[in-house]
Each structure stands twice: as C-alpha cells, then as structure tokens.
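Our platform keeps sequence and structure together, in a single record for each protein. Because each token names a local backbone shape, the row as a whole describes the fold. One such record is reproduced below, unchanged from the form in which we store it:
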Amino acid sequence: MGKERNKTSTILIVDDIPANVSLLEAILSPEYVVKCASSGSEALEIARKTSPDLIMLDIMMPGIDGYDVCRALKEDENTKRIPVIFVTALLNPGDETRGFEAGCVDYITKPVIGTIVRNRVKAHLALSEANNKLDELNRILSKQLLKSTMTLREKTEALQSLELLNMEIQDARAYAEDIVETVREPLVVLNSDLKILTANHSFYETFKVTSEETIGNFIYDLGNRQWDIPKLRILFEEILHRHIEFNGYEVEHDFQDIGRKIILLNARQIFRVKIGSHIILLAMEDITERKQLEEERDRLSMIVESSNDAIFSVSQDDAITSWNEGAENIFGLSAREIIGSPIFNLIPAERHHEKSHIWQKILSGEELQYFEISRIRKDGRQIYVSITTSPLLSTDGRITGNSVIARDVTEHRMLEDKIKHLAHYDTLTDLPNRLFFMELLALELARAQHIRTKLALMFLDLNGFKQVNDTLGHSCGDHLLQDVARKLKTGIRECDTVARLGGDEFTVLMPDLAHTDDVDIVLNNILKIFESPFILEGITVNSATSIGVSLFPIDGESSEELMKKADIAMYEAKASGRNSYRFYNAEYGCDTRSTAAQ
C-alpha cells in the first residue's frame, strides 16, 4: 500500500492486443498507476473522465485508429495538454510524420525495450510537469513583479534620502536579474548576509519552492531548514572566505519534497567597491541523473566484460571499436590486436557480401536477432556464431555504427547436423534410411511429372542373410550389410540414390532416365558385386540378391504404387533363383525379362 501512495502519475495504455498491453503494464506499473483501454473510443472516454498524465497509444486499431484518437484528444480543451506517445510497429518515415502532425510528443517502435519505455515516459512526464509548473510560475512571477514594483516604489519614495542603500538595491537587483534569467541551471543571488535577493525559474522548478518562500530568506532557512546542509556551510563560511570563486563543489542531500539529490555548486563573489558590499552568485547543477547514468554505465560495462558472449562494436567505416573478454575467448584475439582493424578480418572471404546486407538493415534502424553466420578465429578455424546486432546512435540520433553480441554455437550447430544426419541416415551403413528415401522418392516423382521424364525404382533383398546371422553371428551380418552398401554405391550412376529400408532390404532410385538401357547397366553392375565372395572377419561368405524393378510412369505415378510393384517383382525374382532381377509387368504380374546367375 505504501508503494501505491507514491505513484503520483497515471499512465493510460491503449492497444487492442492484450499481450502488448500486458508488456507495457509490466514495465510501467512498478512506478505509475496504469489504466488500460483496448480501443480508441474506450481510450477517449477514459481520458475525458480521468485525465491521465500520459497516454501510450497504438496506431493500428480497429474502429478509430491512433491518429484519430490523438487528434480528438488535442481538439478537446480538457485533454489537449496530455502528452501522447505512439507505440507502434510502423517504421516508415511517413508514419512518424503523421504521428507528430496528429499531436504526439514521441514515437516508440515495437518490440519495445523496457529501459527505453521507462526513460521516455519519465522524460515526458517531467517535461509535462515542468510546462505546467512554468505556467504556474509565470502567474506567480507576474503577481510578484507587480508586488515588487509597488514595494520598490514605496521604498524609493520612503528612502530617497538613503542614497547609499538605494544604490546597493538598484545595482544588485539590476545586475542579478540580468544574469539570473540567462542561466539555464538553477541560480540564486545572495547578499553578504546570505539572504536571497533573487532566483531564476529553474531554481523554483528544480527544488519545488515558490518565490514567496525564497526571496529575502536566509539560505539555510529555505524549506523548513532543509538547506541547512553541512557541506553548504563549509562552502560559504570557509571556502568562500579564502576564494572569490569556487567551481565543481559537490553536495549530496535528502530534500523533503524532491528526494535525494546530488548537486554541483559553482559560487562566485562580486564586490561593490562604491558601497563596500558584495553579492554571491550560486549556480547549481542537478547531476543526480548523470551520476546514476555513470553508475549504470559502469554496471553495464562490468556486465559486458564479464559476459561469456562476444560483445563488440563496429564503426560506420567497418572498423572494430570495442572488444570484450568474451570476444577474446571466442575469436582468440585480444582487444589490442583487433581494435581498429576491419571487421572483415573475422569474416570468411566468400561471405564478405554479408556485411553490406547487415549494414543496410542497420541503416534502416532494424535490429537483427539470432542471425547464425560463420566467422574466423585467430587460428584460422571457422566457427559458427549467433549474432544480435543493432544500430549505435550519436547524441543527435545519427547512426554511427552497430553493436554486436555474438555467441559461439559451433558445437550446437554440429550437434544439430549430427541429429539431422541420424534422423535421415541408417546408423549401420550410413545410407539414407526409409524415411529419407521416401521423401527423396516423392520429390523425384514430382520433378519427373513436371519435366515429363522417366524414373526407375529397384527393390533389393539379400538371399540367405538370416543364415549368415544365425551361423556366423550378428557382427558378421552387420559387416555383410556394410560391404553390400559400400559396393552398391560404386555400381550406380552419380545421380542415383541407394538406401537401406531395414534388415537386408535395399532400394535404388534412378531419376532422369533418358533410356531404360541405363537400368539394365546398373542391374548388371549390381549383380557383378555378388559374383565374388565377401570376406567377413576372415571368413569367406557367398551371398546373392534378388531385385525387383518398377518404372514411372508405366507402372504407377505414386510412391506407394512403385514401391508395391517393385516389391512384387522382387519376390518373383527371388522365386526364379539366385542373383536375378525382374521388371514388373501389369499383364503377367512381372515382366518375363529376367537375369539369373548361371
């Protein structure tokens, strides 16, 4: 409940996609009161009733889109001062222009980044609050000026005889007012008694005080003596006694209304010889946010240096400008060796074109995530890395290069390749397995149908394989399958595929048949393989095969038809004797053409 009471600002999130609303709500709810709307009409109703401090508005919504909602808000006297930030995936320059013309104050692109959202919201809330307070201050100052003018007139009339005092007042005020309002940072002018003669707008806005609470008061008495700060006393009572000016004096203090602040003080004494008096100019710079940013930068730097990932940056002219320890470990190059060198030192020559592609993406403001590419280590070994890269921007928003986070995925890539290989290839023979062969057959059939060419499918079975297993053992049986697989690959054409379906069954796929004679040649090559005995663990074994052949498009147009008919033909060949083959024939069951070992 304590945290809820501290949430003084209300944010209205408008988006028709619940996930986007939930993300923004999670980012902002720790610091602000969050209200949500899922349509433009609902957003207008909530804004007119509750007047939120800031609106996060999606553009692409059903019904009333974000542009119309923003225009409607700006046309309404009660809602026109509410700042509107568009949150959208639209990236074209024209979209951004339309948004600003409609009245938005900022533009955040999706996917959103929490730090950017919080900083932008904080900045625009502060700006809105500052504008509101500036209006209030202007009213107060106008009133104070009128009051001061009347008071000055009365004093002038009453103190005409006190020429010395009149000179001090006029000179000090004229000089102070000329300087004070030209300074952007908070500034006060004190007399020799440390009473405040005048202060600028920035002072009132920064420290949340009014001119009535400030002018004429002792510096230490400001804000119920909040300004009775030990280090401030040292500046006025010790340092300024020895120096006319003092710069860069840092004071850290808890203020009741604005919290803990770190302030950089610059003080200067200006003497008025004629009247024997002097004034003190005290300029203040709130460096709290800068200190926080420095601490955050140091923290991020520590994170970068301790990361196992390679984190580095590249300039617009392709030179590496930063390099962390993770990059040293992954690429084998120290920061001293690589900083200033071209990024192409890490890219294989055949992939140099990728840099241009990546840079075009960067120039468009796009972030590339988890993009897997190959790179080169110092030892020349090629590795695979997954990179995320995004633009580096200067303070004025220009793209000056890109930052890169790279993770070594070489082992992961090799494991993936191994898994893919195991999924498609037989572990014993390293031939395509049944699943992969059926995929290849389907692809080649589709291609044959498209270009109107022929295709042959052979179904092979080893004769007497069970006997080898039973008498010589499974180890000899495995060696026989491996030898058959190796020799089958030598007997086919370069474009053909041999596969093991399982057990002692093999297939041969012959695409792009210009002449069926090619089938006969391959069949004879295969039969010759079995003319010589196989030597299995020092044992001579004679083996034979039976082959069935089906042809596309004669015997069928689908994988199932061709496999079935090749299987039928294979069994007919097995019945006809050792080392034989048959072509499927629809009329007779199988073609009478066959070859059997003599």
Notes: Confidence is low (pLDDT under 50) at residues 1-5, 587-598. The domain at 161-290 is CATH 3.30.450.20 (Beta-Lactamase).
